[in-house]
Amino acid sequence: MENQHYTLKNALLETGFEYEGNDVIKTKTALHCIEVENGKIKHIKPNDPNSQGVDAKGGLVLPAFKDMHAHLDKMLFGLPWQAVSAKRKSVKDMIAYEQQLIPEWLKTSVERTEKMIDFLHSYGTHFIRSHFNVDPTSGLASLHHLEQALQHKQKTVGAELVAFPQHGIYYTQTEPLLKEVAKMDAVDFIGGVDPYSIDGSVEKPMELIVQLALDHHKGIDIHLHERGESGIKTIEFLINKAIENPQLKGKTYVSHAFALGNLSSSETERMAERLAHAGVGIVSSVPFRGTIMPIPTLRKHGVEVLIGNDNIQDHWSTFGSGNMLQKAHLIAELYGYSTEWELSRALAFATRYVLPLSDDGKQQWPKAGDDANMVIVASSCSAEAVSRIAPVTSLIHQGNIVF
Fold first, then answer.
1. Of the candidates 128, 68, 13, 108, which has an alpha carbon nearest to the alpha carbon of residue 349?
2. CA–CA distance, 2 with 4 (Å, rounded to integer)
3. Helix (H), strand (E) at residue 285
4. Given CB 3.0 to 4.6 Å as the disulfide criterion, which of 26, 96, 141, 242 pairs with 248?
């Protein structure tokens, strides 16, 4: 549906918490009419079931979901099913495999990226941070194909893009290409991957990444799978650079950061404090196969923790569901967030911290003037939506009704 002026009626909104002593025992809700105009929420008023408009049918309206770590350019989605091969054990094995297959994947990547966006839409996602390969095999084709797909879907999805030297910066001589894409307005972040194990040095590739980000006013979002000393050294390097260059604060992220899952409690606390002080965030796909990330400790210290699906159907993994509400559920289950209040707070991992109620139960979303980015789910409240992974029945992006 084209963006227009309409009213969403019979829309269930959260209005506050019900307490027993100091404990939240229930979430209060009420039906409302939400007026939408020019992509914004214009007005919220008590429900009038007889009014003209789009009928939410009593569904719970929540902030639309954000997937903050995806690879839209090289999913195998839309190709025949293929499980992960046991033959490819290392990142360098994967690089060799990608060098062989990328030319074939690129032939259909625009169409398949659009199908992947539709798939993410079906679970309520309206915004995606997507990495795209920058390497001698892909050249700039991965970026250009991704831009085409996003252009075709511009009315239904928002995105920010990370230039990702998947094959190493120096291991495959990607430096010239990375310098070229860093100048482009379409690129929001400079990426990187395992500098020590791929490029043989923490400092050399990381110095380039940081300098490109500073020179071209970009953010940083690097993949860091290294679990030992080199992983911690890389995180410390970024922390120090963000402290030295305040313009990087709030724009610098480490994806995966598995090394944080192997520290002692005191070391984890220290790193969380430093990350928060430097404004360096962590992006996680919530791994649990042998590594439980210290998300509660990071959040306790104020570190921004973003969540994404990462792999959905590709040659790295096939376990990403595409469902951000399922990711919030997984976090709640892993870390024991089981009360009404805790479950309602866990929704933040799916929405990038936009929540209907504040921590003390005051209604804070939606408000007049907010962007009209909403999902409607079959649930009585956000706590139940997280716990039961509620089905999404409608998605609205910038006022446009996607379905």
1. 68
2. 6
3. none
4. 242
100 and 18 share one domain: no
122-159 pLDDT, tens digit each: 999 999 999 999 999 999 999 999 999 999 999 999 99
Q: What one-letter code names the amino acid at 273? A: E
Token duo for residue 345: 């707070």
pTM of the model: 0.95
Same domain, 51 and 74: no
Could you give the C-alpha distances from 378 to 11, 127, 277, 358, in angstroms and in order?
11, 21, 40, 22
- Dihedral of CA 367/369/371/375: which sign? positive
Pairing type for strands 305-307 and 280-284 reads: parallel
How far apart, in whole angstroms, are the C-alpha atoms of residue 200 and residue 179?
A: 20
Together in a domain, 229 and 313:
yes
| Residue 386 structural domain | 6-58+355-401
- In this structure, what are the phi and psi dihedrals at residue 32, rounded to the nearest 5 degrees? -140, 165
Q: Note if the bond before 366 is cis, omega within 30 degrees.
A: yes
Residue 345 lies in a domain: no
Rounded distance between C-alpha atoms, residue 212 and residue 313, angstroms: 31
Residues 126 and 209 in one domain: yes
Residue type, 190: I
